[in-house]
Amino acid sequence: MSHVGGHTEFLQAVDSPTAWRAAVLLLVCLQLHRPSPVHAAVTSSRGSYRAGGCICAADIFSCTTLTLRHVPGEMPVSTVTLDLSHNHITQLEDGAFQGLLQLETLRLAHNQLTAIMPGAFRNSSGAQLRNMDLSSNHLCVLEEHYFQELSGLEELLLFNNRISRVEGRPLAGLTNLRKAYLSHNRLTDFPFFSIQKHSHPHLSLLDLSSNRLSKLPLEDILALPHSLQKGLYLHNNSLWCECPMYSLFRSWEQQEFESLLFFRQEHVCLVYGNPRGTVRFLQHGRYLEKCNLSAVTQKRSVTVTAGKALLLHCATTLSGHAITFLWVSPSLESVLPPGNNGSLKMFSNGSLEIMAAREKDTGIYWCLAEDRQHHRNDTWEVNVTVLADSNDPQEPFNTGFTTLLGCVVSLVLVLMYLYLTPCRCPPCLKAPPPATATPSLGNEAGAGSAQSSILTPTPPASTEGPGRKIFSSVGATRPPSSLISTLTRDHGKDKKHASEQRHARTRRCTDERLI
After folding, report:
1. Which ranges of 279-356 does DSSP label H, i.e. alpha helix?
2. Are 41 and 61 in contact (CB under 8 A)?
3. Domains (ranges, CATH) in the chain?
């Protein structure tokens, strides 16, 4: 009876309002004081490991294999390395890493990420983040805004996702990027043009292996920095067996790029795009043996020496076994396989070979590729310039003869200018000899010379004559008229006296003969 009475008293106590209020209050208090899973893990993991919880060791915060669906809301602000791999996180929300100003390494591999929301790295370390691992997730599209706030990123791991498309230039702002891994995805193309030497000066490794690339933009790839070409991995793709592609890889192999040396067997191509027609083209290149290996890729403008062979590639973007090719020569002549006239030879893969180039072969060659199955077409133009053969024996002779002739003509013109130009320069006047006599003798000599110059029947050298001019010296004065008359009178007397003397001698001679 006592037992029954006690039980009855317990039920009455439980049914009382006071007891219910006390129980509810106790449960609420227990719930409020219950720590969050992350906080409990942090507090319990300091100095020891707790199964199923996070680990905080100095600047490392690890929450792996906890089936987390979101990034934890409370994390130590001193975290430098954050490891959230092997969870069920589906996306990175806006401000997911807010407050982690020291974060340098972020590991989110083996989750279920499908998107990174804008602002996910806002108010976090941002430019200090160096390494980020997003491998083995469910990313399908690489959006342009994913890494805009991570300019200091050096290593980016995106392999083993489901990425089939790259929007815009998601890597454009990563100026410090050194290595990017995008292998084992579903990429059919990649914006190589967005990577330049000035935008990514440190990028030395880009892994695009094991994707679905069928055509390579060779011009964009050749424009990449040489250091990046050495670290470009393109093996295990669905590349078409084409001469430009083959020439590119052969060129890299000759330069001993590691991407070719270490994965030589994994470089395969598909014959006419048929998955069953796989060829390891670096080991068995018989299908591509006609490719021109002297040129890495077909350029828009090429030169060739006369008499040499030249191989032109129809570098189009079409793929499939229903592709037909047609070439049009500069003389508007259509060329189809196997060629025509013995000077042009065309192969089934669309390449055109000029057997022996001639000067008349110079011009624009136009290629038309047509996909009849999908009703598409593409064109390609190549400007060919045929140069004269430098080994022609007549060429040095012609050059030497032309040079010699030019020298002779120049010499003749110089001689004509020096010696055949008419010169009307006046004769130079000789200075008078210095006077050595006394002034009196000088005056007499001067008078005598003036007298002789006037009385001499032969005109002086300064007399006017054909082609001569008389130049009077500065300061010369005309003799006075009285002197001229006196000299004339004396001259007449001298002549008369001389005549009389001659007559006297004649008479004397005559008288002597008579005697």
Report:
1. none
2. no
3. 299-385 (2.60.40.10)
Query: What predicted TM-score, i.e. pTM, was given to this entire model?
Result: 0.53
pLDDT in tens, 420-443: 766 555 555 555 555 554 444 444
The residues, any chain, with a CB within 8 Å of residue 126's CB and separated by 6 or more, are 149, 150, 151, 152
Q: Which two tokens stand for residue 23?
A: 């129980």
pLDDT (tens digit per residue) in 343-362: 888 887 788 888 888 888 89
Q: Which residues contact 271 (CB under 8 A, 6 or more apart)?
A: 241, 277, 278, 279, 287
CA-closest candidate to residue 239, choices 281, 284, 194, 195: 281
**Are 368 and 377 contacting, i.e. CB atoms less than 8 angstroms apart?**
yes
pLDDT for 258-294, tens place per residue? 999 899 999 999 887 777 778 888 887 676 766 655 4
d(CA 346, CA 328): 11
* Cα angle 301, 302, 306; round to 5: 140
pLDDT value at position 475? 43
Per DSSP, the residues of 124-174 read: S-GGG--EEE--SS---EE-TTTTTT-TT--EEE--SS---EE-S-TTTT-
- Residues of 108-120 as b/e, b for ≥16 C-beta within 10 angstroms? bbbbebeebeebb
The mean per-residue pLDDT over the stretch 363-375 comes to 83
Q: How many residues does the chain have?
A: 515
